[in-house]
Design a protein that fits this description.
With about 240 residues, this protein is of the alpha/beta class. It has a single domain, classed as Alpha-Beta Barrel (TIM Barrel). The structure holds SN-glycerol-3-phosphate and magnesium ion. The site of SN-glycerol-3-phosphate has 11 residues, from strand 2.
């Protein structure tokens, strides 16, 4: 079976992560999907950025939750990657969904409510998915399994993926307990016996973050369905 390729935070190996530049690159590739992370601004707008704070990826500092969209838009989301990307801004979820309108890739929206609860994040994201009419293209995932369970209850037609880093002995039961449709494990689980067993028993495994071609080949053999990679071009070359 072919291993599906998802661009992690866009084509983040060669473009600044979670920016429109990274998503534009990914949108033109013959890959299966794109993954990105959402937080909520202080004025309630879902924005696409990985960390709770803007410090690592922008020229600003502070928590996303304490800044309005206007304040977030002042920051450069690309200058830390390279000068030529200085004009890149933190995208809103709406801007990213616009960019992928009519494109073939699946969209994995990771709800980053792990540290801060972001009241309204889940509801906002689901409302946007409905507005764009893309419930069948979207996968909602999270390390916050409480939020993921609630998302499944509110939007049963949207696929959910349970993120985890542990080598769980019985991940299938854990996923069933929160109504999750797929397992989104870190690499070690997928390569060990519990991961291989879950795949053999029919679980969909999408594995993060896989940048080493050797690991990708091992995962294909272990029965994983998809990988999240910062280097989609590299993986396309491997499997072509
Ligand atoms: O969704 C897969 C992966 O993105 C989860 O980890 O920290 O890169 O968001 P992280
Ligand atoms: Mg992520």
């Amino acid at each position: 079976m072919a291993l599906e390729i998802f661009a992690h935070r866009g084509a983040s190996g060669i473009r600044p992560e979670n920016t429109l530049a990274a998503f534009r690159e990914a949108a033109e590739l013959p890959i299966d999907g794109v993954e990105f992370d959402v937080h909520l601004s202080s004025d309630g707008v879902p924005v696409v950025i990985h960390d709770e704070s803007v410090d690592r990826t922008t020229d600003g500092s502070g928590y996303v939750k304490d800044m309005t969209l206007d304040e977030l838009k002042q920051l450069s989301a690309g200058c830390r990657f390279a000068d030529e990307y200085s004009d890149e801004r933190i995208p809103t979820l709406r801007e990213v969904l616009e960019l992928f309108r009519g494109k073939p890739q699946r969209l994995n929206i990771e709800l980053k409510s792990d540290v801060f609860p972001y009241p309204g994040l889940r509801e906002n994201v689901i409302a946007l998915v409905r507005e764009f009419g893309i419930a069948d293209r979207v996968i909602l995932s999270s390390f916050d399994h409480v939020t993921l369970e609630a998302a499944k209850r509110e939007a049963p037609d949207i696929e959910t993926g349970m993120l985890f880093v542990e080598i769980l002995a019985d991940a299938r039961s854990a996923a069933a307990g929160i109504g999750a449709d797929a397992l989104h494990p870190a690499l070690p689980f997928a390569l060990r016996e519990p991961g291989r067993r879950a795949a053999a028993e029919g679980s969909v495994l999408r594995v993060f973050t896989v940048n080493d071609p050797e690991h990708a080949l091992m995962l294909r053999e272990a029965g994983a369905q998809a990988i999240f990679t910062d280097y989609p071009h590299r993986m396309l070359n491997l499997f072509k």
